[in-house]
Each structure stands twice: as structure tokens, then as C-alpha cells.
Amino acid sequence: MSFQGIPWILYEEDSTRFWVHYGLVILGFVLAVVTAVVQWINPAPYGKHENKDLNWGPMIPQRLGHILSDATPGVLLFLLVFFLYGGVRRYTNYVFLAMFLCHYVQRGIIHPLIMNYRSAKVPIGITLGGFFPNCIYHFINADFVGSAVFNMDYFYDPRFIIGILLFLSGFIINRWADWKLKSLRNTKGCNGYYIPYGGLFELVTCPNYFGELVEWLGWAIATWSLPGLVWCLFSAATFVPRSQHNHKWYKQQFELYPRNRKALIPYIF
């Protein structure tokens, strides 16, 4: 199996595009660090941690907010940047495009349309809090996978194979966990919270977060890129503290909550 380099500098040095791309990469790294610190102290105020004492702006439909924050940057922006700013593309570039769209069509369009939300409305500030970071990370990832020159034999590269396997595994875990939560709400009603059981829920409180984190780890390895890395770091900066807050919340709310469960990573955390 080959292990050939992927160009780190895709654009002419000192060009506007060079500084925009790598400036946003640096900004993405800083944002990941800030997010980890802030969310470890206080969870983002939605879902289980909703705080009605805080004013996050006008309320909009929850489904619309979810679509705007996820599908707009994850599908529309990604496609636009991939095709407008990309260079000579090979099959590998299109595989990465399909991977990203597979996740965000599901996450940003299908999921909001079929999910039973506990709250019908969400403050627009919460929506924008997800929208703007997503725009940054999805722009640089689309810019990279649309421009990077992958050798034709990259399909056999260990990075690509391992990354694809992790991405697919994480996608399946994430979809299964979300389906399990949706089924629980359909069975018992969407106005409360219940203890989920079965599968990875026997090991961790948030297998949906675990699955998505595995996805983006696979993406970072498969693309072997700085944009992929900072997006994985930002995902971890979101999922690690939030899973810990969710885990603590469940233990406080349910006296019989299984004590052997971890928050995010089976047997570890």
C-alpha cells in the first residue's frame, strides 16, 4: 500500500486564497479551544440544558433552525465551495464530497423533518451559534477536498482505508443512536426524557455523539488534512463536555440511572 504525501500548500503562497484558507484554519483551531473551555464550564443552553432566563433572540421553528444551522453550510455551502473553488478533481475528491453530503443530508435535512422535538421553537441565537462555526469549518474542508491532488492509487492508501472504515462505522452508530432516541420518544411521548437502553446505550450516555466523533476522526484521517483535523477537534470540543453534562444530568434526574455507564467513550470516559 502506498503512503504518498498530500500537498499542504494548495495555493500560491502569499495569494489571497492562501491567507484566507490558512487564516480560517487557524481561526478554527482557536475556536475549538475556546469552545472546549466555555462548554466545559457551561453547556450550550438548548435541549436538556435549556435556560429560559437567557434571551437568545426571537423564536423560530425548531425544524427550521436545525436545517439552517446544519444543512445550509453542510450541503449548500459545501457544494458551492467544492465546485467553484476546486481544481482538477479525481474520483477520490468526489468520494469525499459524497461522504460529507451523506452525513449532512441526513443530519441537516432528513433528521429535522422526522424528529419529534421536545420544544417546537428555538431561539435564533442558538441557531446562529451553530451556523457560523459550521460555515468556517465546512468552507475550509470543501476548499481542501475540492482542490487537493490525490494520486489515483490513494484508494489503497492505509489512511484512506482506515479513515473510510471509521467514518462508516461512526455514521452507522450515530444513525442507530438517533433512531433509538426517536423511537423512545414515539413510544413514550416527546414531552419528557427517558432512560434509553440497548446497544451502546448500555455503555455510554451519548452514543450518538460518540458515533459522530468517530465519523469526523475517520474524515480527518482519510483526508489527511489540516481542515479535517481542526473540524475533528471542534467536534470533540463540543461532544466531550456536552456528553459529560448530559451524563451528569441523567444521574441527577433518574435515581436508577445505570452507574456503570460512561459519558461518551465506552469503558474510558
From TrEMBL:
First-listed, main subcellular location of the protein, grouped into a coarse class: membrane
Occurrences of domain 3-oxo-5-alpha-steroid 4-dehydrogenase C-terminal (ranges): 123-269
Residue stretches in coiled coil: none
Transmembrane feature ranges: 20-43, 64-85, 122-140, 160-177, 189-210, 216-240
Record-level GO cellular component terms: membrane
Keywords of the record: Membrane, Transmembrane, Transmembrane helix
Pfam families, alphabetized: Steroid_dh
Entry similarity comment: Belongs to the steroid 5-alpha reductase family.
The protein's name in its UniProt record: Steroid 5-alpha-reductase DET2
